[in-house]
Each structure stands twice: as C-alpha cells, then as structure tokens.
Amino acid sequence: FVRSVEESKLLTPLGGPMIVLSASGMMSGGRVLHHLMRVAPDRRSSIVVTGFQAAGTRGEALLAG
Q1: pLDDT along the chain (65 residues), means of 10
Q2: Is 1 helix (H, G, I), strand (E, B) or coil?
Q3: How far apart, in Å, are the Cα atoms of 43 and each of 10, 35, 47, 56, 57?
Q4: Where are the domains of the chain?
C-alpha cells in the first residue's frame, strides 16, 4: 500500500509480477500512466478495467484494442 505519488513511482522499476489497484478514471493522467507504461509492453501482463471509459479516452482506446 502506498499513499504518495513518489512511493507509487518507486514501484515502476521493481519488475517482476505485481498487482496494482488504481483509482477510477479514464487513464488520462495520474499514477496509472506510470504503471501502464511498465506493464503494457509485457504480454504476460493483464490490465483489468472495472469502470466506465468514455469515448475518446485512453481507457476506451485500451479496451478497444
């Protein structure tokens, strides 16, 4: 569990498997972007989107493939 942006960014270079729970949003900004850049290129990773993603947002584009 991390509270600050700085702590969150420290998780990015750790490597290895992990689960990241992020605040709701459209993936347009915030901490989730650091985590997406780390895990998205790895085909072994899964990104689970549990909330609504508005048209034209990064989250909607991710869901559309």
Answers
A1: 87 76 83 85 87 92 91
A2: coil
A3: 22, 14, 10, 24, 22
A4: 5-64
